[in-house]
Amino acid sequence: MKQLIKIALILACTFNVFAQDTNSLRDKKFWVNKPSLEKVKQTIKEGNSPSELTAFGFDAVTSSIFAKADFNITKYLLSFEENGVNKLTHDGRTYLFWAAYSGNLELVNYLLKNGAKTDIIDDKGSSPLIFAAAAGQTNTKIYDALIAHGANVLTETSKDGANALLLLVPKLSDFELVNYFESKGIDLKSKDNYGNGVFNYTAKSGNIDMLKKLVAKGIEYNTINKNGGNAFIFASQGGRGHSNGIEVYNYLESLGIEANVTTKNGTNPLHNVAANTKDIKILDYFIKKGVDVNKQDENGNTPFIKAAQSNSLEVVKYLEPLNKDINLLNKKGQSALTLAVERNKPEVVSYLLANKADAKIVDKDGNNLAYYLVNTYSKRQKAGFDEKAKLLKANQVDFTATQAGNNTLYQIAIEKLDLDLLKFLEPIKIDINTTNKDGLSVLHIAAMKAKDASILKYLIEQGADKKALTEFEESVFDLAQENEILKANAIDINFLK
Questions:
Q1: What count of Cα atoms within 13 Å lies in the side-chain half-sphere of residue 32?
Q2: What keywords sit in the KW lines (predicted)?
């Protein structure tokens, strides 16, 4: 039951990616109301595409799967020619991936009967069977159906070489599913390409009950893999949105497993927990075990840099006195402040600046902090963006500076296609007609990417030159003529002539 709840939460997170879509058939709110088949048909008649993919690769069919819509609705959506059973969606996954992942046996069988392939590998290196196992799917009939249509439990693995059993056991409470896969020929003592067995994978999930059962079953636990890592490295990684508690580390220690371990990639447990735990006791635990708090990994990141990138102010404050250099750079030329501006909250940025973090830092590509702010702009986090912008301006960060590729912040901002972001740059007085290394001005880029005329008209109002030509003698009008979205939406672009 717990695993089904976890799957439902994962699906909900995925479904939120396309909430409030302009296409009703991809909008979460539409499906929450449990529409009838007739309602779906009427919505299509009103102009909502049953097959168009979002920028993230989701469509009406995936929406119906995540919403657990009536089977006949999903079947109807699949009847459209563009929605073939092997159509690639988000992360290169076909509908079979999502059906198996969500435990929809009726849909799995329908897709397989109509030619869905079981040997397609998604962008992350998984087959439908492996994807389902990694999600914690416990319905053996799903696996039976996949195997009956060619899935091979003995040869199919993740990109790291983990088979279905290695991926699934960490999510189990007993050995019923273990017995099922063993009956298919998988050995519980199997290992991935790096020498990690089921104990390490289960340590990552923090499933202490299963860890104890594995030890009782004679599974190896105190081993070092090919990268020099052990169960402590896996446990410190945690999972998506999950970090392990101190009880997991205490249990591993009770088995005699070494906490002070560093992989060949330079990663120790502090790198991981500094990024994902809010519990100071866990950080303190590893520091008292002698784990190097200033160790740089293969990318040049220390635990402090990882904390500044994504963790709470409390964690950053805890590590700062132990950190040797607040302005240490990683191999990309990024400091703790760089990554805090890019991904963390304003209070972390403010704290670092107050503790002498260098606001004039420029990375190896030539991007300053203003680039990191604008490049990661999100309308949903507009308040945080504005606060960080004020902090950077107060610390004399140059918003007019040319960034990597001779791009100004206008060329960076236009990728977001957000009018508010462009208006934010307006008072900064950046030359709106500067061309980048590819000879493109912000208006050229807008002409190629715009979905309507509003941004194009705004840029022209701000002085963007619509007569400017690219290095290939293409005008703004020429580029807009090639914009398929403008064509599809029948946008009048004659004002660009």
A1: 8
A2: ANK repeat, Signal
Q: State pLDDT tens for residues 434-483.
A: 999 999 999 999 999 999 999 999 999 999 999 999 999 999 999 999 99
- DSSP codes joined into one string, 224-265: --TTS--HHHHHHH-BTTB---HHHHHHHHHTT--SS---TT
Tell me what pLDDT residue 18 has.
39
Q: What does DSSP assign to residue 217?
A: T
Q: How far apart are the first and last CA of the chain?
A: 62
Instruction: Extract the runs of DSSP E, i.e. beta strands, from 90-246.
Output: none
Within 10 angstroms of residue 28's Cβ, the number of other Cβ atoms is 17
Measured between alpha carbons, how far is 343 from 336 in angstroms, rounded to an integer?
11
DSSP 272-326: HHHHH---HHHHHHHHHTT--TT---TTS--HHHHHHHHS-HHHHHHHGGG-S-T
pLDDT recorded at residue 31: 96
Do the beta carbons of residue 150 and residue 118 sit within 8 Å?
A: yes
Q: Is 174 left (phi over 0), alpha (psi -120 to 50) or beta?
A: beta
Q: pLDDT tens for residues 371-422?
A: 999 999 999 999 999 999 999 999 999 999 999 999 999 999 999 999 999 9
Give the burial string for 353-376 (b: 16+ CB within 10 Å, else e). Answer: beeebbbebbbeeebbbbbbbbbe
Residue with tokens 């009427």: 42
Structure tokens at 261: 């371990």
Share in percent of the chain as helix, strand, coil (round to 5): 50, 0, 45
Neighbouring residues of 492: CB distance < 8 A, sequence distance ≥ 6: 453
Bridge partners of 362?
Answer: 368
Contacts of 334 (CB under 8 A, 6+ apart): 305, 361, 363
- For domain 401-497, give the fold: 1.25.40
Count of C-beta atoms within a 10 Å radius of residue 476: 27
d(CA 293, CA 395): 29
Q: CA torsion sign, 7 to 13 to 14 to 15? A: positive
CA distances from 429 to 382, 418, 434, 454 (A): 21, 18, 12, 21
CB 273 within 8 A of CB 282: yes
Q: State pTM to two decimals.
A: 0.88
Which residue reads 């416990």 in tokens?
Answer: 138
Instruction: Give the span between the Cα atoms of 360 and 88, in whole angstroms.
Output: 44
pLDDT at residue 205, as a whole number: 96
